[in-house]
Fold this sequence. Notes:
By secondary structure, this protein is an alpha+beta fold. About 35% of the residues lie in helices and about 25% in strands. Strands 4-3-2-1-5 form a five-stranded antiparallel sheet.
Amino acid sequence: MLRRIARLAPFLLLFFAAMxxxxxxxxxxxxxxxxxxxxxxxxxxxxTPDRGGPPVKLSYGFTAKTITPAILLSSVAGKIDVTTKxxxxxxxxxxxxxxxxxxxxxxxxxxSEWNAKGGNSYNVNKRNCVHFSAEAMRRSGLRxxxxxx
Length: 149
């Protein structure tokens, strides 16, 4: 029996070596505590799409263009925030999930849509970083239950 396995070993090695690498994109959802006064939610995307192409390493959040007391009173100008490596290093990852190419494309469309909104697009109660991350979760195929409190 062992001889038979020993004779098959080179063929098995060739078989497994010839298999293509498994491509996948992973999205991770994070939070960042900024002194407890202004926490932030964001997500990172990394991996290689199943359809091929170069590996991706992206990160996005959504925030007010200018942090002033005005954000507490009304809607203000918002912007997509490309999260830096050092910011991510200080953040807390909560969970990751693999996403399909269609879900990856849907999340990238979301980033583009939120970026194109313009005007007074940030609202601390209705359209903030948590809402942005929750929408990315939905587009990633996850069920999101939001607590308005």
